[in-house]
Structure formats: structure tokens, C-alpha cells
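Recap from last week: sequence in, structure out.
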Amino acid sequence: MKHIRNFCIIAHIDHGKSTLADRLLQLTNTVSERDAQAQVLDDMDLERERGITIKSHAIQMAYELDGEKYTLNLIDTPGHVDFSYEVSRSIAACEGALLVVDATQGIQAQTISNLYLALEHDLEIIPVLNKIDMDNAMIEEVADQIVELIGCDYDDILQVSAKTGYGVDDLLENIVKRIPSPKGDPEAPLQALIFDSVFNNFRGIIAYFRIFNGTIKPGDFVKFVATGKEYYADEIGILTLTRQKRDVMGTGDVGYIISGIKTSKEVKVGDTITHVTRQCSKAIEGFENVKPMVFAGIYPVDADDYEELRASIERLQLNDASLVFEPESSAALGFGFRCGFLGLLHMEIIQERLDREFDMDVITTVPNVSYKVHTTAGDIYEVHNPSGLPDETLIDFIEEPFITANIITKAEYVGAIMKLCIDKRGTLKNQTYLTTDRIEIIFDLPLGEIVFDFYDKLKSISKGYASFDYHITGYKEAKLVKLDILLNGDSVDALSTLLHRDNAYNFGRKMCEKLRELIPRQQFDIAIQAAIGAKIIARETVKAVRKDVTAKCYGGDITRKRKLLEKQKKGKKRMRQIGNVEVPQSAFLAVLKLD
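Predicted C-alpha cells:
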């Protein structure tokens, strides 16, 4: 045990986590020259294209120092705020963390929130200043920020360049010297934490775990505490670039277990594994069922693909513990699923993965958050979908979720950012200067307001400098109304939204204008209306495509033209009664991009 070191790398997006991981793997010869490629741990095409880590990965490295051999387990973490539960599980499986800060950008919001997570778990923090080879690196300024943030000495900060490999040898040495070895009792009953799981077509579900106490061997009869299910451990082993079998694994080890599990609901990230005969007295703390923040409907474009879509979402859920879904149906779109996501990026990634990995064509409805509806009878309902609201006469009041947003930016953008937050019904809680030109602003904001385009606007206002992090604080009462979109008098439930009364008129008008551009012209007039209850607040009309039926009548009596026009009018009326309006997929997406 004293030769094992378990650590993770935490950082803001794009501060060089994956590149640093690549260098560590190269220096310890874990990856051969032939297999070496940039971001070797990011194995999804999507991760490579976007340059972000979506899934946490674990890998074992062998390292020799002063003639002694050490085992280093690196558990990589995603950087984006939407994947913070995954980060918290990775941190729980470690004794130390490398806090990577970009020397060109300084400390950003995610750095701070991930640092707090690590400190809650009493991790040994090694501050690392990355990208020092860049021309615009502000080494001394950023070092000052780190010292202020974690209260370490200047000498404790390691300066590296992950791209060129400068200083990484020194970093490896520090990992061995500064990060404590795992504590635990090899003789105690088995207690292991599941921090990730993946699906394999041939072997079923593979769970990744870290052992805190006890030992495990292939063939052991084990129990997953949160689900209460029991299995035989068919195969256990360690994680290098490929999986390697082991005959026994002890306290402090990180590895995988295959036990032929077929259904995704039986493995939960954050769960504890123990032996059925000798059970551990309590589960490892920190397991929670993830609470989704943003809800949207996902429907197959072709109704026959419903079952296939269900299977695809179930498989995705294995790899992504924070995806929640339940079946629902919509008058406009047929059968589909109501899915819960941690944020908009998470939703976008899931949509992309359904398309790429499972070849599913899907339509996504307008995303919204969950609201608590208090009825006049004194009942409380949780509503994820505007169409699930009780009748307006029965509603006493509605509460919406609020967040505390932590924004770090350059001082010159403060005015514009404050205006953005206040426009989104935010209230300023606090602002502190971290350095002379960097400021941290804390706002209380309704979650529903930041779901659409808040992050994009924040980035464009601050020229990409501002960083944003948030956590849910609770529910507050709000004046919310349900806005319906009607096409020829029929409500399109997939376009319904719940929003604040003050914003309803503007939003309704913009929706109608946008839909007028996007809905193709039919043989009859299409009325597009925005309504709150029975009151119409905005209307646009898509004009009919008309054939000039009077073209052949030149001269002659006016009644001949009248007769032809009346005949056409009757036809149009009949068509309007039986014709239905197709809403193109682009219309659903356009709602998300409304300014």
C-alpha cells in the first residue's frame, strides 16, 4: 500500500489537463510511442473535436524513484460545470489532486469550485502552473493568485509546460513525495467506491472502483449497497490503456469489475461494493442520486424507432450517471422521453452522442427546469413540463429554482455582465476584487433564465474571458405564466414554455416572428398565435401559396371571376379543416437561439 498514489487533475476548461495527462503517461512509458496521440485519454470523437473532457477516465502508471517502484493511479476529471457530480466522485477516490492553472488566463470559476470540492475531501493539493512557455504567460501574477487562494508558499507551486514536457519529471517526483499513500485496513470487510461505469456489448456493464478497505478476488460473491443487488465477480483487474486481469486486488487499488450485469439501473456511480458474507458496516459517504437541472423532451423523428431510442438512452445512461429519463407522449410529436440533464452542454452532448453512437434521429423540445406548483387545495406538484401544469384556477402560486452564480471576469466587463444578470432577473450578492483587474461577482439568478443562452451571451460580452460556475440554492416564489403557441388554433405542446409574466409578451412575439420565417407556406393561410390562457398576445400569418385561377378570364363579366374565386375559397377552407401544419425540426431548435 505504501507504494500506491491515487490522484486526480482538477482545472478549469482548457487549462491543459488532458495535455498534462498525456505527458505523465509518456514519461512513465505507460503509452508506447506507437499509441501516443494528443489527448490519449479522451477516446470519444466528440471530446477530440470540441477539445473538452466529457467522461472521467482512470489509468495506472508505473514509476520508479530512488530504486523503489511506485504505482500511480491517475483519475482524470471533466472540467465543465455540467459534469461536476462526476468530478466529485473522482475526487472521492483520491488522496491528492493536481490543481492546474493556466499561466496565461489565471484562476477561473471552475478552478475555485473544484478546489473547494477537493478541500472538502481533505485532499493534498499540489498547485501546478501550466503553459509557462507561452509568450503571454503571467507567471508571477498567477502565482500570487494561487498563493492567495490556497495559502501555500511560492516554492510549493510547480511550474510546468505540459506541451513541451518541461518540469513534468519534477511533478512526478512531487506526486510521490507529497501525496499520502492510501490508508485502510486490508483485513477489514471489503469496501470499494464505484466512480464510473461503461457498457461493453460482450461483457455487459464494467464498473470502475477504488478499494478503501479489504481485498477482492475473482469469483467473490459481492453486493452493491445502494441497489441491494448481488453478483459474482467474474473478472477483476487494473486499468492501463487496455484492461489487465488480476488475481487479487487490495486496499488502495483502483481497477474494474465485470460481473455480467445487463441492466443499467443496477450500477450507480458513487455506490459501494462489499462482500455478501462479510459486509462493511457502512457505505462510503457522498453517494447521491443526481438531480437534473434542465428537462427536455427527446422524440424519435420516425415513430417506429421508439423502442430503439429507449435502448440507446439506457446505454448512454450507463456511461453517464447523470442522465435521467421517463417516457412521455406529446400531441405534436407522438411518443418519446422526458429527459433530465445537468445543463445545456450536457443536453447538447447527449443529442450528439445519440446521433453518432446509435444513429438515432431525434427532435428535442424546448428545455425547461422543474417548478413546484402549490395548488389552492394545499398540494405541491413538481412539474417538469409546461403541459403538466394544473388548470390556472387551481394554482395558488408557483416556485422556481434559484442558483448562486459565481462569475470571475476582468474588471472592464463588469458593467455589461451586471446588466446581463439584472436583465435575467438576478440580484447582486457580492463582488470582490481578486487582483487589481480581476473581479469575482456573485449573483442570485433564477435557473430558468440561464437555461437558454446565458452562457453564450456571457462569453460574447466578456470576449471569452468571464468564467461561470453555479450551484442550486433552493426554490422561490415567482410570477410565472404558461405561454402556448397555437397553429391554426391548435396548441403545439412541444413549444409551450413557462416563463416570467414580464417576459411573456416579448418572447411570444419573437416566437411568432421566428416561426413565420421557418414554417413552409401551405395551400392555406396559417395563423401562428402566442397565448396566455385564453388571451392571445401576439399573432403572425403565413400567407397561402395561391394559384392565379382568374388568369384565363380576360375581359368579360366580373361574375365569371367571382365564381372562380369563390370556388377556390371553398377548396382552401376545406383544405384548412383537414390539412395539418408540419413544424420543421429547425423551428424547435430556433427557439433555443432566440435572442
